[in-house]
Amino acid sequence: MAGVLPAQREVEIDGRPLKVFDGLLPNVGDYVQALSRAAFTRTEVAREDTAQYRHWATELKIDALVQQPIFEMTRRAVLGFSTPGHGYRPYRAYTNVAGYGDMLFTHTDCLPDQHDLTALWYLCDEWDVEWGGETVFYDASDELVCAVRPRPGRLVVFDGAIKHAGRPPSRICYVPRYTFAIKFERVALR
């Protein structure tokens, strides 16, 4: 088993970590091709008060996730967030798909005292900067602190209590914006 992966970019938002990794997934096209045939359902919601605006997602069982090569890269990136006596275990995996006109809202993925992590992969063959689709991250004052734009095989790992939102692609983008999310809970190591 290989060790911790180095991040290309690191940011702290209100004392909570966010790291960006590039170049980890040489076969990203295989994932994009598979997702183009996947069954998505409009079941995902950002927050309770936006439940009437559901967005498209497809789930992946954890047993299947841990057998995928993408999980090993994710696991190695997440190792860099571990602290003495604590590590992380995956509990949910799913892919979102968004297109021009979709509504995506700000939200957090966990409560502030949980310190769970979200690993978010951008699965695309190409992505033009003019297409938008960034994930934006906010501080406690709702000020935009960081934006991470889609790139083929880019991974961003962050504390799930950081408020964030995926932005839909612009009108000139004719490809779907796929993001593959793996949620990790913080666990005590024995």
TrEMBL record:
Cofactors, names only: L-ascorbate
Keyword terms: Dioxygenase, Iron, Metal-binding, Oxidoreductase, Vitamin C
One Pfam short name: 2OG-FeII_Oxy_3
Domain Fe2OG dioxygenase residues, every copy: 80-186
InterPro entries: Oxoglu/Fe-dep_dioxygenase_dom, Pro_4_hyd_alph, Pro_4_hyd_alph_FE2OG_OXY
Keyword Transferase attached: no
GO MF term (any one): oxidoreductase activity, acting on paired donors, with incorporation or reduction of molecular oxygen
Repeat in keyword set: no
Name this polypeptide is given: 2OG-Fe(II) oxygenase
